[in-house]
Amino acid sequence: MATERLNSILSHLTPTKSGLSAITQKDPDDVVITLAIRTPLAKGFKGGFKDTQLDYLVYTLLKKVIQKSNIDPQMVEDICLGNVNDGKAAYTIRAAALAAGFPNTSAASSVNRFCSSGLKATQDIANQISLGNIECGIAIGGEMMSAGGDRLAKPFHEEILKNQEAADCMQPMGQTSENVGKDFDISREAQDRFAAESYQRAERAQKAGWFDDEIVPITTMVKDPKSGEEKQVTLTKDEGPRWGTTYESLSKVRPAFPDYGDRSTGGNSSQVTDGAAAVLLMKRSTALKMNQPILAKYVGATVTGLAPRIMGIGPSLAIPKLLGKYNLSLNDIDIIELNEAFASMAVYCLNTLGIDHSKMNVRGGAIALGHPLGATGTRQICTGLSECRRQKKKILLTSMCIGTGQGMAGLFVNEVL
């Protein structure tokens, strides 16, 4: 501790470091992650969480955070839930936290920036720690897509609709995927081949047990749709991966959005999924004081905007923006978790940025695993850091596109080598 404090003082007296040397240096005031866990991801409407409510899933995962970390709940000053579909998420997180064992002095809030909500929650907690407002907090992302979607019930006001880009914010996500496919000539074949690779990687990872250290078992109730009988089940594995999926099998799937195009299908788009993921963050000095294991350092995150009709290519703008802030290049990144909302946008970002596919979505992505909207940002952190530990790699980059035309990216340094 004394050595780190001395290094911190010396860093202010010497020329500023840049690039990898800057982000990998350790300081008592760093924001660090001491736990990153998630639920299994279940198929929407027919999977293991189809009869589970958001409040119960969040409550159960928060209890797991306390159990796995052995942290004194009194030390947690704020909890932020990233969620998209539930307008009462702020009530949910507060009540769930209290029931899970956190005292009434632990505050709670919810945040919604569509598919980046989990990363946004992480950023919000990290920023509070960085500014000295709190020393310890939890970011959690959760989504029960079985409960329904987030489509607008009615159009915007007519004055707003006079602006074309404002009107484009109403385009269904499938339409934006077809826009990307057509505008940038991402063929159906390219999309299906990418999707097949995602499924095959997820199958390989699942068979090898690579997900085991990031997933915590969740016990819940499931109702038989025919008899109405309820039974208790314990979910331990992701339900999305379809073993044996090939390009040939995917090429036979019908287009999912025929009104807009013929390239995006149920086989090369992200799955409708229920799930949650949580990240425990605190100041490095606090982690050392509380004997918490430091898994990783949170470096930073950024967001950008773009035309809503091609929202999928958001990561191609957010990633260079984030790397530029830290004087890094993609060559400096070891592992990349890029959300596969649709194969169209994933292929575009992969090719446009020149990403080495061997280090992107090593365990498969949302096409194979699923995309519980509010949870994806924190789920990527759990999966990415686990993969960094497995490969003994350091630098993790996460990114996702965001409905209405945005992109977000986050940067982390794995410290378990």
What's the layout of helices and strands?
Elements: H1 2-13, H2 20-23, E1 31-38, E2 42-43, H3 54-69, E3 78-82, H4 89-100, E4 107-111, H5 117-130, E5 136-144, H6 158-161, H7 164-168, H8 173-183, H9 188-208, E6 218-223, E7 230-235, H10 247-250, E8 273-283, H11 284-289, E9 296-305, H12 315-325, E10 335-338, H13 343-353, H14 366-369, H15 376-391, E11 395-402, E12 406-414
Parallel strand pairs: 3-4, 3-5, 10-11
Antiparallel strand pairs: 1-8, 1-9, 2-8, 5-8, 6-7, 9-12, 11-12
Helix pairs in contact: 3-4, 5-15, 8-13, 9-13
Structure description:
A hairpin with a 6-residue loop joins strand 6 (218-223) and strand 7. The chain is of the alpha+beta class and 417 residues long. The strands form two sheets. Strands 1, 2, 3, 4, 5, 8, 9, 10, 11 and 12 form a ten-stranded mixed sheet that branches. Strands 6-7 form a two-stranded antiparallel ribbon. The chain is globular and about 55 Å long. It starts with a helix and ends with a strand. Helix content is 36%, strand content 20%.
In short:
With 417 residues, this protein is an alpha+beta fold. It has helices at 2-13, 20-23, 54-69, 89-100, 117-130, 158-161, 164-168, 173-183, 188-208, 247-250, 284-289, 315-325, 343-353, 366-369, 376-391, and strands spanning 31-38, 42-43, 78-82, 107-111, 136-144, 218-223, 230-235, 273-283, 296-305, 335-338, 395-402, 406-414.
Q: Which tags fit this structure?
A:
417 residues; alpha+beta; ten-stranded mixed sheet; two-stranded antiparallel ribbon; 15 helices; 12 strands; globular
